């Protein structure tokens, strides 16, 4: 039986829109519209028990899940929501023991969730360029209890000359221009490794898909996930009037070896519809942009809780 004690995490659950997440500290209490919730009253109770307030209302003392942490995360940036995270984990094949590369830590929502899936043997190496967001993410990752499985780096991989990682199982990208980092990500991914990127608009999705084809990725799929809440009550179950509209598009692919260099130039890449070669003009543009910005490399790595798997052996990527 799991009993609540000092420092236990607890979700004080009143209803779906009123719930409070806290770490139990015996001298603390908080005032709510349903009365005062005293932490000391929770100590010694089993998770799932009721706690009565001074206004004779009650909350349930629930053990928080990763969903609860992510939904109550401090937002520094837009975050990836559980409705998308579930599919990302399934579609990218994320599991225990994997090495994950993430570009665009943001508030650490996706980082925390993915770390909770790859732990205890796996690790998330996450990169961001904004120290302010990195601090927010660090706090959120700590609150979610997965700091041990995450290493945060302050490094712009767009301009980095040497890739700091190799043989990654999965790469997750959440930046405004994900197509720019595809060549770099390719170098760090193992063969057939999964890549996933967030694209809030269709224009971004198009540019990304073209870069994926150009950089020899296959199994390309783009999806949008809409969740509909149902209000289920006896005799009057119906869709909720509230709901989230469009949030973002998700794009998945796998690293492959098209063998273009070994083929004659007239030969076409594999015959999947989405794997048509993009117009050279656009691809050249993004390649130029990458090269141009490569001269301004900033290298700074913070908070290394675990060493990245850097080896100097060069591999064909
Ligand atoms: C939308 S947020 C990511 C949100 C995150 N997926 C989450 O669930 O909390 C995008 C992040 O990408 C970062 N970013 C922008 N350009 C970057 C770059 N070149 N390398 C790494 N991170 C970058 C921004 O600082 C920002 O924190």
From TrEMBL:
The UniProt keywords, alphabetically, are: Methyltransferase, S-adenosyl-L-methionine, Transferase, tRNA processing
Binding of S-adenosyl-L-methionine occurs at: 107-110, 128, 156, 174
UniProt keyword Ligase present: no
Show the ranges annotated as biased composition (Basic residues): 282-317
The Gene Ontology terms for molecular function here are: tRNA (adenine(58)-N1)-methyltransferase activity
Domain of life, per lineage: Archaea
Indicate the transmembrane segments per the record.
none
The segments labelled Disordered in the record are: 262-317
Q: Which InterPro entries match?
A: SAM-dependent_MTases_sf (IPR029063), TRM61_C (IPR049470), tRNA_MeTrfase_Gcd14 (IPR014816)
Q: Please provide one cellular component term from the Gene Ontology annotations of this protein.
A: tRNA (m1A) methyltransferase complex
Q: Which PROSITE patterns match?
A: SAM_TRM61 (PS51620)
Identify the SUPFAM superfamilies for this entry.
S-adenosyl-L-methionine-dependent methyltransferases (SSF53335)
The keyword Transcription is assigned to this record: no
Q: Where is the tRNA (adenine(58)-N(1))-methyltransferase catalytic subunit TRM61 C-terminal domain?
A: 57-238
Pfam families xref list = GCD14 (PF08704)
BP GO terms, sorted? tRNA methylation
Q: What name goes with this protein?
A: tRNA methyltransferase
């Amino acid at each position: 039986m799991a009993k609540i004690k000092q420092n236990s995490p607890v979700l004080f659950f009143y209803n779906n829109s009123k719930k409070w997440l806290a770490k139990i500290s015996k001298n603390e209490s908080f005032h709510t519209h349903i009365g005062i919730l005293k932490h000391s009253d929770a100590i010694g109770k089993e998770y799932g028990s009721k706690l009565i307030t001074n206004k004779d209302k009650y909350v349930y003392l629930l053990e928080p899940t990763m969903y609860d942490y992510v939904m109550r995360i401090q937002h520094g940036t837009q975050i990836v929501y559980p409705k998308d995270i579930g599919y990302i984990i399934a579609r990218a094949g994320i599991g225990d023991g994997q090495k994950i590369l993430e570009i665009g830590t943001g508030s650490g929502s996706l980082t925390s969730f993915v770390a909770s899936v790859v732990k205890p043997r796996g690790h998330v190496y996450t990169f961001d360029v904004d120290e302010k967001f990195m601090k927010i993410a660090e706090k959120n990752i700590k609150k979610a209890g997965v700091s041990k499985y995450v290493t945060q780096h302050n490094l712009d991989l767009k301009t980095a000359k040497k890739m700091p990682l190799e043989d990654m199982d999965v790469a997750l990208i959440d930046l405004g221009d994900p197509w720019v980092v595809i060549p770099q990500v390719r170098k760090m991914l193992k063969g057939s490794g999964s890549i996933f990127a967030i694209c809030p608009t269709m224009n971004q999705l198009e540019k990304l898909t073209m870069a994926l084809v150009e950089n020899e990725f296959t199994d390309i799929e783009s999806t949008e996930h809409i969740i509909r809440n149902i209000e289920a009550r006896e005799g009057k179950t119906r869709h909720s009037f509230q709901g989230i509209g469009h949030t973002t598009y998700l794009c998945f692919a796998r690293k492959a070896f098209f063998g273009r260099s070994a083929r004659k130039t007239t030969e076409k890449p594999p015959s999947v519809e989405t794997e048509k070669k993009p117009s050279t003009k656009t691809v050249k543009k993004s390649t130029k942009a990458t090269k141009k910005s490569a001269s301004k490399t900033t290298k700074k790595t913070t908070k290394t809780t675990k060493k990245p798997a850097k080896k100097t052996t060069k591999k064909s990527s």
